[in-house]
Design brief:
Blueprint: H1 18-37, E1 41-42, E2 48-50, H2 51-54, H3 60-65, E3 67-70, E4 77-80, H4 85-96, E5 102-109, E6 125-132, H5 137-152, E7 163-169, H6 170-178, H7 184-196, H8 199-205, H9 211-221, E8 224-225, H10 228-236, H11 241-260, E9 265-269, E10 282-288, E11 296-300, E12 314-320, H12 321-327, E13 337-340, H13 346-357, E14 362-364, E15 374-381, E16 384-389
């Protein structure tokens, strides 16, 4: 990099200038306060960890996405977190080790080795909430309710409405595969074709598969749309008890969202295998009109805690605060700043401290230069310092 372009940032890495930084921080605080109101306690995991705890058991996708480097102190490989969810699972399983249900929330920067979509940032600010210790559908419904209420608390721009919740369940695919008796290579080919929703590749992978199983998997690839999908799925999978239980859970989500969040559209996709190695049950994602990628993703992931010595039922969601801030029209709270000229008057110092304690921004005038954000000034009226519209500041 030459001296005339050393200011350039790596592709996909961005910085937040004052206005956007203020909006993102206000949104982060609002979302965390919302989670706090639901009983979720805030944790701050480290930015880096050893990769054998950061990545173990989470599949190849996260491994590829993680930036790694050698630790000079230990000689072990460390990684900059690409996803905070596994870290929070470690905190629940190892650091806290609490009995019963544990609710945790978090927010922090992450780093991706490559963007996950064409316009995606490689440095998202991930915020999420996780619920541990409850295997029932009630836990999944709680985190979905929390996510939707959180998103609906935002002032989403009209061009980004309506909101759509995409719902799936990896248990449907698991039920079909568990009785298929396929070898590992065939399973991987089928999984890859379904994950990419590639009909030609799916047909190729099914060439040597039993006709009944092939019919189910071809039909599974088409099971996406409105709630009528569930009727077709029950007919197709009537002899697969595990799949029917999974469909019952999807139906429960549809019922709750329809009843409590009537203006949220529901899209069912039973062939959604995003992060299959990560998730173990319901999966869901929230989309906004005109935003090319999901603004939030979540689901059940019961297996992660086992690698930390304490397997626990787990479900939760995560969103990118920077992406949400783009769709959110509610700006950070702004109130005209107050200009204050230099003075040795102790009463002025008291007044300035009082205003700042009340949340006002008070900016000193330096070399007769008034900050353009100032709309008022402190002037002396008798023995008191009072706020007046900004006209001029006495030196």
């Amino acid at each position: 990099m030459t001296s005339d372009n050393r200011w350039l940032l790596p592709d996909g890495i961005d910085e937040l200038l004052p206005e956007r930084a203020a909006a993102v921080e206000a949104l982060r605080r609002q979302l965390l306060d919302h989670c706090h109101g639901w009983g979720y306690r805030y944790v701050i995991p480290p930015l880096v960890e050893f990769t054998d705890s950061l990545l173990v058991g989470l599949g190849a996708d996260l491994d590829v996405l993680t930036c790694k480097f050698g630790d000079r102190l230990s000689g072990r490989t460390m990684g900059v977190r690409a996803d905070i969810t596994p870290q929070v699972a470690r905190i629940d399983a190892h650091s806290l080790g609490e009995p019963g249900v544990t609710r945790l929330c978090y927010a922090g920067s992450t780093l991706h080795s490559a963007p996950q979509s064409v316009m995606a940032s490689r440095s998202p600010i991930q915020l999420g909430a996780e619920l541990y210790g409850c295997a029932s559908i009630e836990a999944d419904l709680e985190v979905i309710r929390l996510l939707l209420s959180l998103l609906k608390s935002l002032d989403i721009a009209p061009n980004h409405r309506p909101m759509t919740l995409d719902v799936g369940h990896v248990g449907v695919y698991q039920a079909i595969m568990s009785s298929a008796g396929l070898d590992g290579d065939t399973q991987r080919a089928l999984f890859d074709a379904l994950q990419r929703k590639s009909a030609p590749d799916l047909s190729l992978a099914l060439a040597q598969v039993d006709a009944a199983v092939a019919e189910q998997l071809r039909a599974l690839a088409q099971l996406h749309g409105d709630a009528s999908v569930l009727v077709a799925a029950r007919e197709l999978l009537q002899n697969e008890p595990a799949a029917l239980l999974a469909l019952d859970q999807v139906a429960a989500v549809v019922e709750v969202v329809t009843r409590e969040f009537g203006d949220v559209a529901i899209y069912i996709d039973l062939s959604e295998l995003r992060s299959f190695e990560y998730h173990t049950g319901l999966v869901f994602a929230a989309y906004l009109e005109g935003v090319g990628t999901a603004v939030a993703k979540g689901g059940r992931y019961d297996n992660i805690g086992s690698v930390f010595g304490r397997q626990r039922p787990a479900t939760g969601f995560a969103c990118d605060v920077k992406a949400l801030a783009v769709a959110n029209t509610q700006a950070a709270p702004a109130q005209g700043a107050v200009a204050v000229a230099a003075s040795d008057d102790p009463e002025l110092a008291i007044k300035v401290a009082q205003l700042r304690a009340e949340g006002r921004v008070v900016i000193a005038v330096i070399d007769d230069m008034i900050d353009p954000r100032c709309g008022e000034q402190l002037t002396k009226s008798g023995a008191a310092w009072v706020l007046t519209p900004l006209q001029s500041v006495e030196s």
